[in-house]
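Predict the 3D structure for this chain.
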Amino acid sequence: MRSSSGRAKYVLLAAGVAALATSAWTLSAQAPAGRGATTAPDAIVANSFPNPYTTIPDFFKMPPGRKWGSTAGVDIDKDGKTIWILDRCGANSCFDAAAGKMSDLDPVLHFDENGHLIKSFGAGMIVFPHGLFVDHEGNVWVTDGNDNRPGQGRGAAAAGGAAAAGAAGAARGAVGRGPGGPVGAAAGATKGHQVFKFSPDGKLLLTLGTPGGAADPQFFYQPNDVLVAPNGDIFVAEIHGAGGGLIYKFDKSGKFLMKWGKPPAPGAEPAHGELNQPHSLAMDSAGRLFVGSRSCNCVQIFDQNGKFIDQWSQFSRPSGVFVDKNDILYVADSESGPSNNTTHPGGWQRGIRMGSAKDGKVKYFIPDPDLLHQGTSSAEGVAVDARGNIYGAEVGQMDVKKYVRQ
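Done. Predicted structure below.
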């Protein structure tokens, strides 16, 4: 997607970035490129776009005595200015596996434009809040990416272990479950792996999926994100791990229409244009579906019937995607960096990249300030209000940051 003039900038940009890089980062950037990776000059350019944004720390005010947990989901209300956020109940899960019970905290939070809490709801309903979408009617959609089976580990840790617990628990939870495993809920699971539609006041309007989870051809297992098209059709992306993924399409009543993709299976990695951990969803003004296919280190574009259109790697490894009213694409990368040189080698930095959803040209980059942080860091979920303010929901740091254009 780059122009010839952009290529001419490589040498100059490389010299500047290399002078700023630490020795640890420089060494990690020399690893040979793996599948889904792009060359080092691509990463140098991708890390060097200007950052015209200022970070506003501690913008959101939590109720007295409550602290942030991991916050993967964020979206903007239909009013264009107030903000919805998913909080994993002060930890990295709303299910306390050790105690065997759900938290009594509300995971769905609504803040005004000044960062003050307006309302909250959802206590006891959602095990692992993950994906968040506010439709054009103001209804709030939430995906629950795990279940409450006894002995499972994903997301059970509190602050300080969110990233490690998430990765390790996901691996344990996948054994014998999900695609290729038995269909239906795991033994002892009574909640999780569902998609919920709430009214703005927290009334449950619709539930998709089987409580406790189900594997293809039933659904869901590890639903990552949900999106509602202008005509009311519902899209759900599932599989929180490398090697495959599925997108389900329903009508506005929740009737299943179709699906595409395939579940993980032993053997070759998914090919170009095939889903590989579809972690987040967005839609542009033309109705194209943008998929943050995290394990292919790319943004994939489909029509609403699953026809593959294009695939972009210049936005780095996508955890979150968002398209604003001007067709600007915002992509949050929370997983690149020196600690993830196996799955995304080449020197890519974490942060939020912005560019055109029409032609894929990247224009700006908000870098993770902690370059050498080990594990998940910076925004995983991203959303932009009507004034252009950016909000990044952070799993590792257990925070939500606001970014304002200078």
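The chain has one domain: 4-405.
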